[in-house]
Amino acid sequence: MKKIVVEMHHSQATALIAIMLVLFAVNFLVGYFWGKKSALEEFAEQIKNESFSDKVYASLCALYEQPTDAESNTVAAPLADSVEEPSQGDSDDNEIVPAKNTSLFVAQLIGYGTEKQAQLYVKALGQRGIPAEVVKRTSITAGGKKRVWYQVVSQAASYENTQKLAERLAIEDRLAGVSIIEIVN
Fold first, then answer.
1. pLDDT tens, residue by residue, 1-12
2. CA pair distance 147, 136, nearest whole angstrom
3. What is the H or E stretch that residue 112 is in?
4. How far apart are CA 126 and CA 107, in angstroms?
């Protein structure tokens, strides 16, 4: 058996080692950035899914806040305002007669993550002559996290006036999903 001997000059050996080191470095960098890209894509997908589930949950919460015929969101008013005193002519009849049904409604305009942003919008509405207030809300996300947010609602008014205001603000301020709820008076 014959041995094969490869002879190289010192400069050739140095060049071969330098080329191999460059190839290893390029291979490492390509793998590193490819791994980072994959991790970022996975993270972005996870955030997208969580955001979607939070939006669905918020939509469901908004649907459950809508009043039905049998129930409504309760904003309590004093009992004395909802009961008429019997007239003097009915002194024999001691029944308490309920007042006429004058239902009041509010428009749930927009929600903010901070109270400061909500107060700024209320102030802007006030400058336009539209009274509104901020209501603190608490929700639980699909992941079980407790979230506090601030909802701007209009002043209580009749359904027609509230609907007109909601339509006006939906156009002027580009608000989507404005809902009108009945309050108990």
1. 788 888 888 898
2. 11
3. strand 104-112
4. 15
